[in-house]
Amino acid sequence: MSPRALKALVPSETSPELIRNFCIIAHIDHGKSTLADRMLQLTGIVNDRQMRAQYLDRMDIERERGITIKSQAVRLPWEFETVTYAMNMIDTPGHVDFTYEVSRSLAACEGAVLLVDAAQGIEAQTLANLYLAMENDMEIIPVLNKIDLPAAQPEKYAEELANLIGGDPADCLRVSGKTGEGVAELLDRIIQKVPAPVGDPDAPARAMIFDSVYDSYRGVVTYIRMIDGRLHPREQIQMMSTKAVHELLEIGVISPEPVISKGLSVGEVGYLITGVKDVRQSKVGDTVTTKLKPAVNALKGYAEPKPMVYSGLYPIDGSDYPNLRDALDKLRLSDASLVYEPETSAALGFGFRCGFLGLLHLEIITERLEREFNLSLIATAPSVVYHVTREDGSAFVVTNPSEFPEGKIREVKEPMVKATILSPKDYVGTIMELCQQKRGVMVDMIYLGEDRVQLRYNLPLAEIVFDFFDQLKSKTQGYGSLDYEDDGFAVGDLVKVDLLLQGEKVDAFSSIVHKDKAYAHGTKIVGKLRELIPRQQFEVPIQAAVGSRIIARESVRAMRKDVLAKCYGGDVSRKRKLLEKQKEGKKRMKMVGRVEVPQDAFIQALSSDEGQKAEKKK
Length: 618
Prior knowledge:
globular, 28% helix, single chain, 6-stranded mixed sheet, 8-stranded antiparallel sheet, alpha+beta
């Protein structure tokens, strides 16, 4: 431990001049969590015995996948020119699906460390997070990480980074999160460059809720950033949106475990516990004030996240429905971007229609529900939101293909995204070919350096959410990176493909696809179900239909008893009579028989091919 860290102690109430609030932003896998680990060690709040890799990643799923899902705030003491400062650091996720976590973290800080891998350079999410920081008018500190790698090219990427944010390549700090080289200089730079928080200590208390988690013993734990005034333990606090009043049982800072303090003042980041078990009482973006001297104006809060992908979540055991509802309530507390509402399906029973920011977000939420709340779930095929207008002028918002209106359709609008793809110039041709296959329209192409190119495309969101990213990675040998943002709606030539089992629609298998791909999609789904549905006593036709027109068909052959086994020779009319009798029986059975689709057939048919490949890899 450094001597500077030994002297540095966490004060109870720090004056705003001695506080620095900053976050670390970067593309996925550029070393944010590793750099955060070195900062924890260097400042001395985690000793070598307690230290483990990805210390701030608290969930098993984060550690297994090596990605950050939840932002984590931690208070670090650091001495600079004989003065001890309190530094509040937030380690943020890097994947595009968790951009909402990043935007909330940025709103709680005055500065951002922009981290770039010295072996890979600037990637798509680096640019996206940089623009988010610029919108928040933050002080940006450019840093090149992983300089200890043999493939590192710090001079080349320092120039690229300086051109991007405007400045001198010499100002880009060189650090190694693995070895700790340059981390002390980075902490000094943060104190010098990042402005101190501004607020009125004598005004009525106002604190912004930027995150919260549910603790089964202590109830809701709320993470706040103080803007004005002070909060002290045992005083009455009020949530400005709900007007709910609670007693403040405990207040403190995260360093990196909870440390109880005597209160929080202007600019400090900490947590508070009121003992409330109702998860709806602590809304992210709400303003906390005191009951005795309440603030008049609430803080601006955060923009509501817009779900990009919708999927139905259903419990395999119907009696688990109340447990799933409670689990989603608790999970939404720690993930404000999750949106859900109840829905029913004729095939799957009671469940929830959930909105996610992307496929990884869907995968993570489903896995967390199964692990943390011990639920067994089916997730229906992901779909996006469509705006449908019928010939009579009536408009519908469709989040589930089964909601697609019957009758003549005037137009269907689908969501579009503005995609940014960064790649070495050698792969430009293959990327353009991929985007054209996915109905993309090129916006522009910019060379960022001698060998790196940025392509921007307008693409339908429905084409991106399935396997676009996987195909991009394979076609660019892992060098391509993708970021995308909402770009409104556009009219598309789309149709609804229904699946009929013995002439009855199965709503869980309905999907909305482009007209040119309807036949291929229908053929694929009926072929898949033919393998999965068990044989009955009668023949079962499986059909894919667009409206009243059948576009694909497969049949599950009937199980047939050998009624001729007892016939040893004799007149052929006797054999014919037995076969006719069997045929009549099959016909009657087909009229009254119902096809029961087994649960595992639903699971296998609704899980995408990509998901199944991922399972095999595991």
